[in-house]
Specification:
With 150 residues, the protein is mainly α. The protein is built from six helices and two strands. The N and C termini lie far apart (41 Å).
Length: 150
């Protein structure tokens, strides 16, 4: 089904197809959480955080409720000053700009490189004001490091 409900269109998101290969594992995990009655934090979240930290080679990982929460917490760690520019792309979920605003920053939009869907380094250079502090971060759209050396 398409976004408009028209069955002839291109599917917007096919969660059934995406989850089919792991549906048994997903249902078992949901059943474990329901049986434990531990819907917030608890052993399941602690296990996830430990496994994620190990997988990415970090000392710690923190599970949060949403990607929006993750963006907000990451931005808070930057100790933004009120009005600090945070360059991002409009080719992202709207909560990206909201997280920037809620963290004290000011979103400044730059275009993407259509080949990688990351921020285009040339577009970033053109959007940065002379008074902006020089910080760099991972692309919030794809999670890949942009090629800033160009």
């Amino acid at each position: 089904m398409s976004v408009t409900g028209d069955s002839e269109g291109v599917p917007f998101l096919d969660i059934e197809r995406q989850e089919a290969p792991i549906s048994g594992e997903l249902m078992e995990a949901v059943a474990r959480v329901v049986e434990a009655r531990s819907y917030v934090l608890g052993a399941t979240v602690a296990e996830f955080e430990t496994a994620m930290a190990e997988r990415v080679g970090a000392g710690h990982a923190v599970g949060v409720a949403s990607g929006s929460d993750a963006l907000y917490l990451a931005l808070r760690l930057l100790d933004l000053e009120p009005g600090d520019e945070v360059i991002t792309t409009p080719f992202t979920f709207f909560a990206t700009a909201g997280a920037i605003e809620n963290s004290g920053g000011r979103p400044v939009f730059a275009d993407i490189d259509p080949r990688t869907f990351n921020l285009d380094p040339a577009a970033v250079r053109g959007r940065r004001s002379p008074s902006a502090p020089g910080r760099s971060s991972r692309s919030t759209c794809s999670g890949r490091w942009p090629r800033w050396s160009r």
